[in-house]
Design a protein that fits this description.
The protein is mostly beta strands and 111 residues long. It contains no helices and nine strands.
Length: 111
């Protein structure tokens, strides 16, 4: 799931997005990677928790979420600064290499 903490934004404001990655099973997902597409004109400020390695290329933020057992989740907070007008939509996708996912349609979200 992906949820914004702020509704109306003004240029220069910062906003937080909470991104929750849940493994609905049936297998443990190892080496989970989250790819987060940030809005054009925004600036990445921080990721909480700050321990996963983060790669930022343009508007694409990629970080490791680790291993998720079935029925467990991780929540991350992404902080951005808005530097342009327009649509402030964020999308995210998760992947786990080598995992046979019976429901790949629930691996992406846009808000």
């Amino acid at each position: 799931s992906l949820r914004s903490e702020t509704n109306a934004l003004v240029i220069g404001d910062w906003t937080d997005y909470r991104l929750t990655v849940t493994n609905v099973g049936p297998e443990t997902a190892a080496s989970v990677v989250v790819t987060n597409i940030l809005p054009a004109g925004s600036q990445f400020l921080s990721l909480t928790p700050s321990n996963p390695p983060v790669t930022l290329t343009g508007t694409q933020l990629v970080f490791a979420a680790g291993t998720l057992a079935p029925g467990t989740n991780f929540t991350f907070k992404v902080r951005l600064q808005v530097n342009a007008t327009g649509t402030n939509r964020v999308s995210a996708q998760v992947s786990a290499p080598g995992l046979s996912d019976p429901s790949p349609s629930n691996n992406a979200v846009t808000n």
